[in-house]
Design a protein that fits this description.
The structure is a homodimer of 403-residue chains. With 403 residues, chain A is of the alpha/beta class. Chain A folds into two domains: 6-88 and 236-394, 3-Layer(aba) Sandwich (Alkaline Phosphatase, subunit A); 94-231, no CATH class. Chain A is 32% helix and 20% strand. In chain A, the strands form two sheets. The first copy, chain A, has an eight-stranded mixed beta sheet, with helices on both faces. In chain A, strands 3, 4, 5, 6, 7 and 8 form a six-stranded antiparallel beta sheet that branches. In chain A, α10 (274-283) packs parallel to α12 (307-325). The longest helix of chain A has 19 residues, at 307-325. At the A-B interface, α4, α13 and β14 of A face β14 and α14 of B.
C-alpha cells in the first residue's frame, strides 16, 4: 500500500466549518467470554451505537501491526493520524505533559512510583499500597527542588503512588535504563547507560535515588521511588499543521491529556464522568472543529479482568450517544486505541472495532456494533492511523491528491 | 501499515515456557478443480484441521505481495517472520547449506543439475533421466577438487541429478547469470556478468563448465552440468536473536533444512514421512519452544499436476493433527509457503490458507479449512511475515510496544 506521509496530508488538508468528533473508548476491543461466547462490546446493550453503526462504516483497526500489543501512546498517536512506529513518545514525557508540567527542550522526564522496600532493600509493593493523593503531594514536596551536579530536579505528584521526575540541566541525554525492576522481590535497579551520552543523566538519577531512599526512610509504605521511561520532548508536527484542524481534547486522565497536548490539541477542563465530558463538548462545540473525547473506564475494566464492569462502561457511553448526535457533527468516529480483553487482564494485540458515521458513507450495514460484525466488513484490517484520513475525507476536509 | 522491523521485535520479544508449532504444508494453496469446483484443500477430508480451524483464527497469507509468485526461500523466510524482499537468500547457498556443506564467507555456491545434451550440444533432458544417487555421487567425485585460476571448486551431490558447486577463492562476487536455460532444445548458456565485479567468477564458472563437458562426454545421459543461483551467505539475524526462541526444524528435504539453518534453527534428524516427523517432534518436544515441521508432498503433488496426490497428502497430514494437539502446545499454526495449484503445475501467486490456534484467539468461526472459508475472514490478506508475530503474540511472548 502506498504510504501517505504527514507531508502529503498537509498538502491536501483544508480548513472547513465541518466538525469531527472522535470518541475513544480506551481498550474497547475484547475477547469472547468463555461461557457466553460474546465479547464485552457484543454483550453490552448498545441501541444507539448499533444505530450509528448501521448508518456508517464499521470495521477493525490494526493499531500498530498484527500481533503487536500497543501501549497507550502508540495506540492514541495512530488514532490521531500519526504512524505509531515512525513517531514515538517516551513515558516520562507523556506523564510530565499530562500534569501540565512545562517541559522544555533539553529536559529529561521520568515516570515514577512510590514503592515499598523491606529491610533488605527488596521491593515488596511497587505501588506503596496506593498511597493517597495527599500523601503523594507531601512526599513530592519533600524530594522536589534538589540540585545535583548542577542539574535541577523537579518532583511532581500525579495520582496515588505516581509521580513525575524532571531533570533540567546541560548535557542530559536519556540513553539510560529504568530503575523500576517491574516486579517485587528484587531491589530497585541502578540506572545504567545504554550508550556513553547517557552518562551524566545516569549519574544524577542514581544520586537522586540514593538521596530519595534516605529521605523517605520514615515514610513506610512509601519508602522508596522507582523510575522508568526517561525521555525528552518528541517535537511532533501538530494536528493544526498537518490536518489544518483546530483540535480540542476532552480527557480527564493525565496521560491522554499529555498526549493530546503533544500533537497540539487544546486540552479542555472537564470531569471524570462521560456526562461531564459531553457537557464540556457541548459548551465548547462552536470553538473547535475536531474533538477527541476519551473514556478510560473500558480499559480499566479490562485491566481489572472485570468483564461486567467493562460492559457497564460501554452501556453508559451508549446512553450518551444521543447527546453527541444532537450536536449534528459532520463526522462521528467511535474507536479504541487497542484491545484490553477482560479475559487477558491487559492490553492485547487484537484488532479494535470502530464505527465512522457521516452522510457520505457507503454503509457497512452492520446491525450490531461488535467485533464479529466489524470483522465481516471490508474495513476489517484498517491501519489505525488511516482512520483519521477517513474522518477527514468524510468531513470533506481533504482536497484531491494529484492533478 | 507501519513497518515492524526485526529490531523492534527484538526489543519486545521475551522468552517464556510457551510452545509454538508451525506446520508448513509446502505449496498447500490451490485452485478449484475444473469439474468439481473445489481446491485440493477443500476437496480433502480433513476433520481434524477443520476442528482446529473452527476454534482458531483463519485467513489467507500474502507470501510476498499480490501477484508475486514466491520461490521456496522467500516463501519460508516470510513464514519465519522475515520480510522476504528485505532478506534474500540465493538458491545455491540454500542448497549448499542444506547438504551440510561448510559454506564460508566469500564462497560462492551454485545449484547444479546433471543434464543430457545431444550431439549438437542442445539440452534434451534437464534432469539427465533422474540418475541414481549413486551415479550422482560418482560423477561429483569426478568433477570435484579442481583449481581454476586459483579458485578451488567443490562439487557435491544432493540427490538424483542434483548437485552443488562451491567456488572458493579471492575476489568472487556472484553478480552473474545462470547457465541453465530452464528448458530443453537450447544449448547451456554462457555465464555472463551482471556487473563488472562478477568477472572473475564468470570466467572461472565458464571454464569449469567447459571442463565438465569434456569430462562427462562418456557418461550419457548425465553428459553435462547446468548451474543456477550463484550466491553468497546472507548472514541473517537468527530467530534466537530476534524472537528469543529456541527453534528446531523438522524437515527432510535439503533446501528447507538449509533455510532453517540460515535463520539459526537446530535442524533435527528425521525421516521422510509425516509420522516420522511427528515422532521427531514428540521426542524433542521438551528441548525447544518453536518447531518448524515441513511437509513437502503437497508441493510435489501440485508441481506434478496431480490433484488427487496433493489431496491425499493433505488428508495424511490431517490424520497426524491429533498427535500434535495431544502435545498441548500453546500455539499451533498450519500454513503454506506459497500456493502450488495442481491446475497450474507450479508455484503460483495465490494467497495461502492458514489457521492459527491458541486459547487467546477471537475465533474466525470457519467450519471447513479451505481457501474460500479463509478468504471470508478478517485475515484475508495477512502479510505472511506477520503470521510469526501473531504466533508470538498468541504464545504471550511479545511485550507491549511503546508506553
Amino acid at each position: 500500500m502506498p504510504e501517505i506521509t504527514l507531508d502529503i496530508i498537509q498538502e491536501i488538508a483544508q480548513t472547513t466549518p465541518s466538525k469531527i468528533i472522535l470518541l475513544v473508548m480506551d481498550g474497547v476491543g475484547g475477547l469472547p467470554h468463555v461461557r457466553a461466547g460474546k465479547t464485552e462490546l457484543e454483550t453490552a446493550v448498545t441501541p444507539n451505537l448499533d444505530q450509528l453503526a448501521g448508518k456508517g462504516i464499521c470495521g477493525l483497526t490494526e493499531p500498530v501491526a498484527p500481533g503487536i500489543t500497543p501501549g497507550s501512546a502508540p495506540g492514541h498517536l495512530a488514532l490521531f493520524g500519526y504512524d505509531p512506529v515512525k513517531y514515538t513518545i517516551g513515558r516520562g514525557i507523556l506523564e510530565a505533559v499530562g500534569i501540565d508540567f512545562d517541559v522544555r527542550r533539553g529536559d529529561v522526564a521520568a515516570r515514577g512510583n512510590f514503592c515499598t522496600v523491606d529491610e533488605a532493600g527488596l521491593v515488596t509493593d511497587r505501588r506503596a499500597g496506593r498511597i493517597s493523593d495527599e500523601k503523594c503531594i507531601e512526599l513530592c514536596k519533600l524530594l522536589d527542588g534538589q540540585v545535583i551536579d548542577g542539574v535541577k530536579v523537579f518532583v511532581r505528584p500525579v495520582r496515588e503512588h505516581r509521580l513525575v521526575v524532571v531533570f533540567r540541566g546541560e548535557g542530559l541525554v536519556p540513553f539510560v535504563t529504568d530503575s523500576d525492576p517491574q516486579r517485587t522481590g528484587m531491589a530497585p535497579l541502578t540506572v545504567k547507560i545504554l550508550s556513553p551520552p547517557g552518562e551524566k543523566l545516569a549519574k544524577v538519577a542514581n544520586e537522586f535515588l540514593a538521596r530519595a531512599k534516605r529521605m523517605l526512610t520514615k515514610h513506610h509504605p512509601a519508602n522508596m521511588v522507582l523510575m522508568r521511561g526517561f525521555s525528552q520532548h518528541p517535537d511532533l508536527p501538530t494536528m493544526s499543521d498537518v490536518f489544518k484542524l483546530k483540535p480540542a481534547a476532552i480527557a480527564s486522565y493525565p496521560m491522554y491529556r499529555g498526549l493530546a497536548k503533544l500533537v497540539g490539541m487544546d486540552v479542555l477542563k472537564t470531569g471524570k464522568t462521560i456526562d461531564e465530558k459531553i457537557q464540556t463538548l457541548t459548551q465548547n462545540y462552536t470553538n473547535y472543529d475536531f474533538f477527541f473525547v476519551h473514556v478510560k473506564g473500558t480499559d480499566t475494566g479490562g485491566e481489572d479482568g472485570n468483564f461486567e464492569a467493562k460492559v457497564k462502561v460501554i452501556e453508559n457511553v451508549d446512553k450518551a450517544i444521543p447527546q453527541i448526535t444532537a450536536l449534528n457533527p459532520d463526522v462521528i468516529v467511535v474507536a479504541g486505541d487497542h484491545s484490553t480483553p477482560a479475559m487477558l487482564k491487559g492490553h492485547s494485540w487484537h484488532p479494535v472495532p470502530f464505527l465512522l458515521y457521516s452522510k457520505w458513507c457507503r454503509p457497512s450495514k452492520v446491525s450490531k456494533f461488535g467485533e464479529s460484525s466489524c470483522a465481516a466488513t471490508s474495513f476489517n484490517s484498517l491501519p489505525a492511523s488511516q482512520l483519521m484520513l477517513l474522518a477527514m475525507a468524510n468531513a470533506l476536509k481533504l482536497n484531491k491528491y494529484g492533478a
